[in-house]
Known about the structure:
Blueprint: E1 2-3, H1 9-18, H2 25-35, H3 49-58, E2 59-60, E3 66-71, E4 77-83, E5 90-98, E6 101-105, E7 109-111, H4 120-124, E8 126-129, H5 132-148, E9 156-159, H6 169-180, E10 192-196, H7 200-209, E11 214-218, H8 224-230, H9 239-253, E12 257-263, H10 271-281, E13 286-292, H11 306-318, E14 323-325
Parallel strand pairs: 1-2, 6-9, 9-10, 10-11, 11-12, 12-13, 13-14
Antiparallel strand pairs: 3-4, 4-5, 5-6, 7-8
Amino acid sequence: MERFKNIPLHxxxxxxxxxxxxxxRAQQIVDWVYDKRVTTFDEMRNISGxxxxxxxxxxxxxxxxxxxxxxxxYGDAVKFGFETIDGEYIIxxxxxxxxxxxxxxxxxxxxxxxxxxFCETGKMGLIRxxxxxxxxxxxxGINDYLASKGDKPITNIVFMGMGEALSNFExxxxxxxxxxxxxxxNIGGRRITVSTAGxxxxxxxxxKEKLNIGLAISLNxxxxxxxxxxxxxxxxxxxxxxxxxxxxxxxxxxxTVTFEYVVxxxxxxTPEALQAIYNYCGGFDCKINxxxxxxxxxxxxxxxxxxxxxMFADALGRKGIxxxxxxxxxxxxxxxxxxxxxxxxxx
Length: 347
């Protein structure tokens, strides 16, 4: 049988027609599955018993099993471990709480093949892409958690969890179709950001989709030599090619491009770094999001002190570069930037 949540939204009406039902039934079912977040077809109260039986004969409806929920002691982050459909691994994702915002940091792959040295996900290597059910299932599971707390549902989405979302492109698009649909979650492009390590062809493909979502590129270094060391993907797509596509993205979408910049003390916050960032980023609509390096296993690299980080941000500002400092929410639960890792389940 086919897993219902793996069916792209644009194909659901055809599936419903194929089992002998009217097209409008598809939207009724979608409302129960995604908005009301039911677990079984029997919970759908405004459809007939006959249709419920047809659905049960043809489709599997389930939620991701929640393996763990870890709440930060600071109250601003919650890390979730969802079991993959095959039950072999844990998918980690994070809820970030900031004022009225409820942001999901969603994972798109099990592991990652890009091998950034400061990233726990990269140390796994790429195991496989997540399915549509596994991507949207994180969103549903976290909304279930929020509802259980009497809290508001997810308001913002960042594809910044495990993996490179743009390397799981079709599933990423199918997930966006559900998240952005006005009759489902209705999350607009201004409240969605996708992060990439700078795979230029994937960014070009994203541009063609004209989705009006935010783009965040992990820059993390001011020189190709250092970026080659930190992010091996740079050997294929060096900084110059990243800057060229970023300028195109800003010009064609009208959106500010964010450069994520992991600050490693004594390596990426030097006077040379300051000047190089200015040379790269001057003259187009972008901002630098400074991220103090978070702890990772087996690494001797260190993040900067608070005063050093603020001085670096101020120095960029004096050069006319918009620079913000990202608060490392979830560090105490290993849920901050670069700390997610999907572990194999041992039963």
